[in-house]
From TrEMBL:
Keywords: Membrane, Transmembrane, Transmembrane helix. The keyword tRNA-binding does not apply. This is Transporter. It comes from Nonomuraea cypriaca. The chain crosses the membrane at residues 34-56, 68-89, 101-122, 134-152, 159-178, 184-202. It comes from the Bacteria.
């Protein structure tokens, strides 16, 4: 009997192990197209609507009301959350033990942080002018996002995620200092657009 199947060489075995390890890391570590791109699109559209409503000179650039801008942002965030949650649910089926527990606690922390932000902002914002009230909500919500992206990077030793959080924190801080219109513009271009580009680059880089 002739065996046509030769035994793999050590180099081939190592190559297969490396390829499978990389595939597993991509699967369990999160698809950058789900971690960054949906949120980037939501922030790009939502904050662009706010920017067009506010205008740098105080005059709107487009006939968009504050309620309509908020609606665009909220719909975008809901869709982004649904897309990301579905992707996480699919990958978490393959994860058990500590990794699954970390992911669950991280998701709960994100929810709790946003709820606490809403309570604080809702208590303070009625005492502020309309423009400053909107800036409070936007600045505090992006502060929560920045903090939890950095925390997520620390939990999973994910440097891209950590630096994404740092980027959001820096841009958010600069925008708050400059005012509501500039904050909306910077959030749309540098955070929304930046997350889209970052996610696509990470996907391409593999």
């Amino acid at each position: 009997m002739v065996d046509d199947e030769r035994s793999p060489t050590p180099e081939e075995v190592l190559r297969v192990i490396k390829e499978q390890n990389s595939a597993t890391v991509r699967l369990l570590g999160g698809n950058p197209m789900l971690v960054y791109v949906p949120w980037g699109v939501a922030w790009l559209l939502g904050f662009t609507a706010y920017f067009l409503h506010l205008g740098l000179s105080g005059e709107p650039y487009a006939p968009i009301s504050e309620g309509q801008a908020l609606g665009v942002l909220m719909v975008g965030l809901i869709v982004a959350g649904a897309v990301s949650a579905r992707g996480y649910a699919r990958s978490s089926k393959l994860v058990r033990g500590d990794s699954s527990a970390r992911g669950t606690m991280y998701g709960l922390a994100f929810f709790a942080g946003m709820m606490l932000m809403a309570i604080i902002a809702g208590r303070i914002s009625p005492h502020l002018p309309p423009g400053e009230s909107g800036l409070l909500w936007a600045g505090m919500s992006m502060m929560v996002v920045a903090t939890l992206y950095m925390a997520g990077g620390a939990i999973w030793l994910n440097w891209p995620m950590f630096f994404a959080g740092v980027w959001v924190a820096v841009v958010n801080g600069v925008g708050v200092v400059l005012g509501a219109a500039w904050h909306a513009l910077l959030m749309a271009v540098l955070v929304g657009g930046g997350f889209i580009v970052f996610g696509l680059w990470l996907r391409r880089r593999g």
